[in-house]
Specification:
This is Ectoine/hydroxyectoine ABC transporter permease subunit EhuC. By secondary structure, this protein is mainly α. It is built from 8 helices and no strands. It is flat, with a radius of gyration of 24 Å. The termini are far apart.
């Protein structure tokens, strides 16, 4: 490919990374807010959080992008640029999946830990902040890592809005070259490289968080050789 076409692809990579970071931040915030709300003692809070989760898990991310970009502007009299429309649609959609990860991890904490917090007269927020979350967050990292990779692949959907992400840029290059195999092979490798870096980063974060709560894998003790005739069996 010529340098001009490579510049187009690199611009698409940058747009994809921006969209991934912004939508991941929104999805993370939504995941924790809704996930914690799913464990609230008030039924109305649990109901509203569950309703949100079911609605956004039961709708297509592609249709949600169309809805945010084409339906919301006439309804409220303002227009979102493609980047913010994509961030909102993807963040809310994948945040619904993430909320179930948060809820499940909190529910998996040993009930004795909760009882200990109650015995110490901790408020519900103190129990959540000091006892439950420090133990639950390390267990959330592997499923969150998978969700992040799915979000990366979901960013390609914003190309339907004409947003110049990696998928959209690759299609422009394909039209210019009249060749599909070369450009889409490069695109596959780029997506794989980004996903690989994300996976390794999340594994490092998981090890760090587990070490902080004493769950880091222990190294096997080296075998000690006992001299013959020592009387030790």
């Amino acid at each position: 490919m010529t340098s001009g076409l490579w510049e187009r692809v690199l611009e698409g990579v940058w747009v994809t990374i921006q969209l991934l970071v912004l939508s991941a931040l929104l999805a993370t915030a939504v995941s924790f807010v809704v996930g914690i709300a799913r464990t609230h003692r008030l039924w109305i809070v649990r109901f509203l959080a569950g309703f949100y989760t079911e609605v956004f898990r039961g709708t297509s991310a592609l249709v949600m992008i169309f809805w945010v970009f084409f339906v919301l502007p006439p309804a409220f009299g303002w227009q979102l640029v493609p980047l913010w429309a994509g961030t909102l649609a993807l963040g809310l959609t994948y945040g619904a999946y993430g909320s179930e990860i948060v809820r499940g991890a909190l529910a998996a904490v040993d009930p004795a830990q909760r009882e200990g917090g109650i015995a110490l007269s901790f408020t519900p927020w103190q129990r959540m902040r000091l006892i439950l979350l420090p133990q639950a967050v390390p267990e959330m990292i592997p499923p969150f890592s998978n969700l992040l990779i799915e979000l990366l692949k979901g960013t390609a959907l914003v190309s339907v809005m004409g947003m110049g992400d990696l998928a959209f840029s690759a299609n422009l290059v394909r039209l210019a070259l009249q060749e599909s195999a070369e450009i889409y092979t490069y695109v596959l490798l780029i997506y794989f490289a980004i996903a690989f870096l994300l996976t390794r980063s999340m594994r490092g974060l998981e090890r760090k968080l587990k070490a902080g709560v004493g769950k880091a894998p222990r190294k096997k003790a080296a075998a000690v050789r006992v001299p013959e005739g020592s009387g030790v069996s």
